[in-house]
């Protein structure tokens, strides 16, 4: 069994923001794999969709705790389902990666990402496989006149969302 967690912030005001790249990609994975619609689980404080892929049970989860407390939801899922850390994959935004690209990391620092820090702290380990989704191009870095924490709360343009969605097949190959 694998647990794939997409990080983001709940609520309409955060929909399609850069910080919700994990939610966006997890939604695309859910559709592509024909998993059921996400349903809220009070027990895990997360939206959950379960299905099978390549003969393995997969749980998709979108924590509803807000980004900085993501570890609470992830920890409760890991504990309840007895999922080993090597079967956890976390999808999240990364300011240091160009839009339209992604990187896979395991046992590396959170890089200032508070959602990832929360997961590391609650699990007591940073040996977590992460798919880091790029949200900023070089031109955005040059023109940006705001802090990174303000930038991640800006909405993607429709064109930028389409660029992120193009990563879907490559990301599925890595789950």
Uncertain stretches of 5 or more adjacent residues: none
Instruction: Provide the succession of SSEs.
Output: EHEEEHEEHEHHHH
Give the total of beta strands: 7
Put simply, the count of helices is 7
Q: What's the rounded overall pLDDT mean?
A: 92
- Give the CATH topology: Rossmann fold
Helix content: 25-40%
Largest sheet composition: 7 strands, mixed
General shape: globular
Spatial strand sequence of the major β-sheet: 2-3-4-1-5-7-6
Overall CATH class = Alpha Beta
Label this structure with key terms.
175 residues; alpha/beta; Rossmann fold; seven-stranded mixed beta sheet; 7 strands; 23% strand; globular
Your description of this structure?
This protein is α/β, with parallel strands linked by helices and 175 residues long. It has a single domain, classed as Rossmann fold (3-Layer(aba) Sandwich), CATH 3.40.50.1470. 33% of the residues lie in helices and 23% in strands. It is built from 7 helices and 7 strands; from the N terminus they run E-H-E-E-E-H-E-E-H-E-H-H-H-H. A 7-stranded mixed β-sheet has the order 2-3-4-1-5-7-6. A hairpin with a 4-residue loop joins strand 2 (39-41) and strand 3 (46-53). The longest helix has 12 residues, at 21-32. The protein is globular, with a radius of gyration of 15 Å. The relative contact order is 0.21. The mean pLDDT is 92.
């Amino acid at each position: 069994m694998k647990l794939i967690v997409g990080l983001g912030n709940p609520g309409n005001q955060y929909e399609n923001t850069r910080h919700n790249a994990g939610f966006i990609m997890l939604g695309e994975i859910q559709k592509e794999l024909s998993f059921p619609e996400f349903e809220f689980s009070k027990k895990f404080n997360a939206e959950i969709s379960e299905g099978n892929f390549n003969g393995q049970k997969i749980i998709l989860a979108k924590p509803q705790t807000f980004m900085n407390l993501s570890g609470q939801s992830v920890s409760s899922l890991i504990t309840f389902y007895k999922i080993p850390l090597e079967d956890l994959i976390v999808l999240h935004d990364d300011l240091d990666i160009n839009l339209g690209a992604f990187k896979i990391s395991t046992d590396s620092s959170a890089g200032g990402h508070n959602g990832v820090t929360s997961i590391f702290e609650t699990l007591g380990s940073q040996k977590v496989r992460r798919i880091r989704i790029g949200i900023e191009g070089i031109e955005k870095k040059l023109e940006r006149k705001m802090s990174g924490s303000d930038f991640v709360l800006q909405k993607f343009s429709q064109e930028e969302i389409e660029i992120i969605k193009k990563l879907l097949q490559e990301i599925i190959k890595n789950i």
